Amino acid sequence: MNVRQALLLLTTVLCAGCTREKAGSASASAYTSDNGSEVEAPRLIPAIQNQLNLMASGVQPTDPENLTAYKNLAGDVVNSMAADLHRAGLADSGDFRALKDSVMHDLGGGAEGESKLDHSKLNEHIGRMRRLISMYQQAMKSAGDHQ
Fold it and tell me: Which of the pair, 64 or 21, is modelled with greater confidence?
């Protein structure tokens, strides 16, 4: 297969994937809100959990580049979880916001620049991030149970 054929095949596959209609959500899944729109965080959570596991085991290097990539992923996950909870109509008692703020503070705040994660507090951050994910999952499951 030459380059032109490969590009044509790739373009065809991408176009087919992009034009495919989204299937409607007919279930009361914990991963859909009550208006049927899909939630964002569940597709990101496995990646962040993998990173947390690697960091906890010491396998994932915690150099500035990797931490910055992790910070960006964590920010996406945290923002997606907050948006999902809002779309599902779940009121925040303040616990989720406080933990979310702590997680982002661990990483040096907003999305700009490198992560400032203190290596001596890495395990504390990992625990906070895992609790935040668990809090989100429990809230979404509860929302699904009440639909």
Answer: 64
Position 7 in a domain: no
DSSP summary character for residue 32: B
- Cα-based torsion angle of the residue sequence 4, 10, 13, 15 in order, rounded to the nearest 10 degrees: -80
Query: Which residues face 8 on adjacent strands?
Result: none
- The answer to the question of residue 109 being in a domain is yes
| CA 98-65-43 angle, 5° bins | 55
Q: What phi and psi values does residue 70 have, to the nearest 5 degrees?
A: -65, -45
Strand partners, 32: 38
Q: Which of 9-13, 56-60, 108-112 has the lowest mean pLDDT?
A: 9-13
CB 47 within 8 A of CB 69: no
Domain-located, residue 82 = yes
Give the separation between CA 120 and CA 52, rounded to whole angstroms: 15
